[in-house]
Amino acid sequence: MQGIFRLRHVIATIALALAPTPAFAIDQALLPRNLSPWGMFVSADIIVKTVMVGLAIASLATWTVWLAKTIELRRKGSLALRRTRALEGNMTLAEASARAGDARDAVAQLIQSCAREAELSGGILDDGLQERVALRLERVEAAMSRQIARGTGALATIGAIAPFVGLFGTVWGIMNSFIGISESHTTSLAVVAPGIAEALLATALGLVAAIPAVVIYNHLVRGIANYRALLGDASAQLMLLVSRQRDHGHLRLARAAE
């Protein structure tokens, strides 16, 4: 009887030794130890790494543009508002030009352009003067608007293409996962998981770059529109000033041109 039990024990031991290892044991042995974002970046394919680095740079550029343009809009908008309010007072074109001096801000350039046209007109008070002044002011406004909007185009580009760049990284990571499955001849999670994780990380970085870019772009567009409205108000005040001086006669306009 003891011999039979011993034979059964030996057979059971051999059967356990020859039995295939469970899939979950293989997966735990083959799965990478570090599945943190940095660990997935380090273990990613070179193409996926390039996509991630590009998206990180795009996100950094987005926040840099936001900071720079916010400071610029606040500073220039405050100065334009102060000069526009000053034009609402009872002053001549000569006084406005003297206050502006050689400043390079937008409203100062509007004043200087208006005074320059009055000087070139030689004190001739006609409808043509106001038309020429209006044309000059329109050109200066357009130039200042282009200047203040510089850099916002990058935000629009990042917001438009970043999701597709992240999607490219996703496709590439999943493709590598299927290649790993084909080469290992197994559907083990250990083969599929790393590539899918890298792919999803690329998608997440694409969204991290795109969503703030779109929100910041819309915010800056509203700020630029308000700044353009201030320039429009300044131009209107200058046109009113020229019109008043025209009504008052040649002498005051001649003084403005001096």
Automatic annotation (TrEMBL):
- Signal peptide, first to last residue: 1-25
Q: Where are the transmembrane segments?
A: 41-68, 154-175, 195-218
Q: Which residues form the MotA/TolQ/ExbB proton channel domain?
A: 125-226
The subcellular location is: Cell inner membrane; Membrane
Q: Which InterPro entries match?
A: ExbB/TolQ_transport, MotA_ExbB_proton_chnl, TonB_ExbB_1
Q: Major location, coarse class?
A: membrane
Q: Which domain of life is it from?
A: Bacteria
Membrane-protein topology:
Multi-pass membrane protein
Keywords, ordered alphabetically: Cell inner membrane, Cell membrane, Membrane, Protein transport, Signal, Transmembrane, Transmembrane helix, Transport
Described by its record, this protein's role is as follows:
Involved in the TonB-dependent energy-dependent transport of various receptor-bound substrates. Protects ExbD from proteolytic degradation and functionally stabilizes TonB.
What protein family does this chain belong to?
Answer: Belongs to the exbB/tolQ family.
Describe the protein's quaternary organization and the partners it interacts with: The accessory proteins ExbB and ExbD seem to form a complex with TonB.
Q: Which NCBIfam families match?
A: exbB
Name of the protein = Biopolymer transport protein ExbB
What species is given as this protein's source?
Bradyrhizobium diversitatis
